[in-house]
From TrEMBL:
Protein name as catalogued: Putative zinc-finger domain-containing protein
Domain Putative zinc-finger span(s) in chain numbering: 11-44
Region feature (Disordered): 90-117
InterPro entries in alphabetical order: Anit_sigma_mycothiol_RsrA, Znf_put
Organism: Streptomyces glaucosporus
Domain of life: Bacteria
Transmembrane feature ranges: none
Amino acid sequence: MSCGQPHETDCSEVLEHLYEYLDREMPDGDRLKFEQHFEECGPCLEKYGLEQAVKKLVKRCCGHDDVPTDLRSKVMGRIELIRAGQAVPEQPVVDPAADPAAPPAQVRGDTAGENLP
């Protein structure tokens, strides 16, 4: 998405890092560039407002659930690997055996009963 106007900070860069801005996970200098961009660019400001509203809604509806420390560590570790441009191992972040909603074959890790009529 782009408004078609030239900006010091390109729309694609702003949208690519929008959640870092929303979560206050970027340096102050970059935040100032984004704020300037939002003042100049209606489409990006609209997208920012929408994502901010979704974030608030999710927090209101789901913000009371405690995240297990080990899950948070695993997720943060994967985020760091992605940011560093490293390959992310193909393994579940959550242990399927700990998920009561997982189907039995998934929990056991086998394919028992797959060939049944």
